[in-house]
Write a structure and sequence with these properties.
- This protein has a single domain, classed as Rossmann fold.
- The longest helix has 14 residues.
- Strand 2, helix 2 and strand 3 form a beta-alpha-beta unit.
- With 185 residues, it is an alpha/beta fold.
- The chain has six helices and seven strands, in the order H-E-E-H-E-H-E-H-E-H-E-E-H.
Length: 185
């Protein structure tokens, strides 16, 4: 589905205004967790849809030191973290993943791979016996090496095929505005 589809835009806009907390328990007996990392909100919207549809617990993965508000500064910082293999500390931790059988894990592709904060989240938990269901957003370059990274970092889990969605509005908007500003008067 194209990001320019008016119906998709209307649905995404409507979902974007719904409230999402850092941690929510939709059903105290739920054995399903939705954990997500989102910078611009695209992945957060999908996480909320899954949370409600699966009556799951919701956990937002947040780095202890937030990324810069500027898109290009964030891209550069994430590139450096990726190249160094950093596992940045998280702002909050999930108390115990043992209570969940199924984990929906959402994140945007950064530099053709899993973002550093998500790598940290994966490293903090024992994935043996879990079903991991990724949902991934990207800015037009696809899922990169995310499947391989998840297989390497969530050892012992059963990884189901990912839901992958192109959601490049921020990059496209930034490029269009920059192009407009660079035009002579």
């Amino acid at each position: 589905m194209s990001v320019n589809n008016p119906g998709r835009r209307a649905v995404m806009a409507g979902l974007a205004v719904l409230p999402f907390g850092e941690v929510a328990q939709a059903d105290v007996n739920s054995r399903v967790l939705v954990a997500y990392f989102s910078r611009s909100g695209n992945t957060r919207v999908i996480a909320g849809v899954i949370e409600r549809a699966r009556r799951a617990a919701l956990f937002e993965i947040r780095p202890a030191r937030p990324y810069p508000a500027d898109y290009f500064e964030t891209v550069e910082q994430a590139r450096q973290e990726r190249d160094r293999g950093d596992l940045p500390p998280l702002a909050g931790k999930l108390a115990d993943i043992a209570g969940y059988d199924t984990v929906y894990l959402g994140f945007p592709v950064w530099g053709e791979t899993v973002p550093p904060a998500v790598r940290t989240f994966l490293s903090l938990h024992d994935w043996r016996g879990k079903t991991l269901i990724p949902f991934i957003t990207h800015g037009g370059y696809g899922a990169g090496d995310c499947a391989a990274q998840l297989a390497q970092r969530a050892t012992g889990s059963r990884i189901r095929p990912a839901f992958v969605l192109e959601a490049d509005q921020e990059r496209r908007t930034t490029t269009q505005v920059t192009t407009w500003l660079d035009k002579p008067d």
